[in-house]
Amino acid sequence: MLTSVLALGAFQKDDVMSSAKQPAPKSRAMNVLLVGTDNRDTVTQEEKKRYRLGSIGCGCTDTMMLVHIAQDRKRVSVISLPRDSLARIPAYTDRTGRKHKGHLAKINAAYAEGGPGLSMRTVENMTGVKIDRFLAVDFSRFMKTVDELGGLDICTDRRLKDPATALDLPVGTHHLGGGEALQYARSRKVDNLADFGRIQRQQKFLVSFIKEISSDGTLQNPVRLAKLGSVLLPSARTERAFTVKDVLSLARELRNIGLSSLEFATVPIKGYADIKGVGSTITWDEPKSAAVFKAVRAGRSLATAKAALPAGVHTTPGMGEFVPVKGTRLACS
């Protein structure tokens, strides 16, 4: 199992890192690492209490999505990476100058240990996919972004009740404000799928967000888009971070893309493993993951990647099968 992690970390490392600092020109595909952090420093006490946000976080990434934007800008592929995925964190030097050796950890610890740069290096080493841009969204900017849009529609075919986040949504379609949307995106105790169920809801949220900015004219309005970008993007610049100018440029390129051109999946999962010093982790299915990320690097769709997966490899039903779905299937009707 540990050798599987090491093998995943060996994908095209030299090629990835040598080109990591190069911008993503329009003539080729773009890969974005989108993460949601548990930073709640700017959340008010009232919001913490009302939405059950807790008092402190670990500085980790609760959400991690690898977003591949096709070269022709006619397809966007999103692969969710479970936060408890077993990863090998590469050697790094922290802000104090202290050197750290490479070590095993959950993938969400990379951000807490070394920020955006270490998160990107970890994902690049595990996938062989070069990250062009990085976007981290904390609790406060998540809520403010949703509120800036006037809320988002979320639909469910069964009641969603989570005592940990106080989420309680009956069957139907609901127009959620920022705080309620955060409850929805964070909840993982509404079913027996735990983080895999939460990943599905996070993908549905992203579809709802894209549908809203596409239908209300935001994508076609530079002024509104720039305002939204100023709310969403952090004030402090980080390595390979988006700028408002980047957002405007990408929006122009994607302005005609529809929900049917969006595809979502979760990285293929093998199972669980208890690792000394790390805890309970999720292990990727090495052969299937390798095939999926090879397809991404080649610019092929997730559906094509699915068809090319090696046969006879174990997959546990209900916990991370590689099943690509179109954005239209995740959207409210």
From TrEMBL:
<protein>
    <submittedName>
        <fullName>LCP family protein</fullName>
    </submittedName>
</protein>
<dbReference type="InterPro" id="IPR004474">
    <property type="entry name" value="LytR_CpsA_psr"/>
</dbReference>
<feature type="domain" description="Cell envelope-related transcriptional attenuator">
    <location>
        <begin position="61"/>
        <end position="214"/>
    </location>
</feature>
<dbReference type="InterPro" id="IPR050922">
    <property type="entry name" value="LytR/CpsA/Psr_CW_biosynth"/>
</dbReference>
<dbReference type="Pfam" id="PF03816">
    <property type="entry name" value="LytR_cpsA_psr"/>
</dbReference>
<comment type="similarity">
    <text>Belongs to the LytR/CpsA/Psr (LCP) family.</text>
</comment>
